[in-house]
Specification:
By secondary structure, this protein is of the alpha+beta class. The chain is 18% helix and 45% strand.
Length: 141
């Protein structure tokens, strides 16, 4: 069974934060990305690299996966995914993107701008929980 938990910022040891996920909006629409090798959509984000702060991870992943060039980014909370007796941690961010440049050459094939979350998700048990958390905190409809 899979379970998503949420924690206040700075309540989980920083070294445990392995992922950054960014709920980003551009011109009032959410940005979703599609990996070149998949047909499904995901929230921009990715793994933290060695010697990188989780904030740096979030900014880097947002740029690499969406082409965002000018944006404000804010930490929302820490989240964990508990699966098969293993709990992995990440940090959820919210971003308002002011300018989208060309999509960098990376694993991302395309981006999608949408008022709602797509139905065809890469992580359908996790992504709706993260989306809902940001919508609730920022009272976005």
């Amino acid at each position: 069974m899979l379970k998503v938990n949420f924690y206040e910022l700075n309540t989980i040891e920083d070294s445990k934060l392995q992922f950054a996920v960014i709920m980003a909006r551009y011109e009032g629409k959410w940005i979703f990305v599609r990996h070149k090798e998949r047909l499904t959509w995901e929230i921009p984000g990715g793994h933290r690299e060695k010697n990188e702060s989780i904030d740096m991870t979030a900014s880097r992943e947002l740029i690499e996966e969406t082409g965002a060039r000018k944006f404000n980014i804010f930490p929302v909370c820490v989240y964990s995914v508990f699966k098969s007796e293993i709990e992995s941690y990440g940090q959820l961010f919210y971003s308002e993107v002011e300018y989208l440049g060309e999509l960098p050459s990376s694993e991302i094939g395309e981006i999608k701008l949408s008022y709602t979350m797509p139905e065809n998700l890469t992580y359908p048990l996790i992504q709706p929980c993260l989306f809902k958390k940001v919508e609730e905190l920022y009272m976005i409809e």
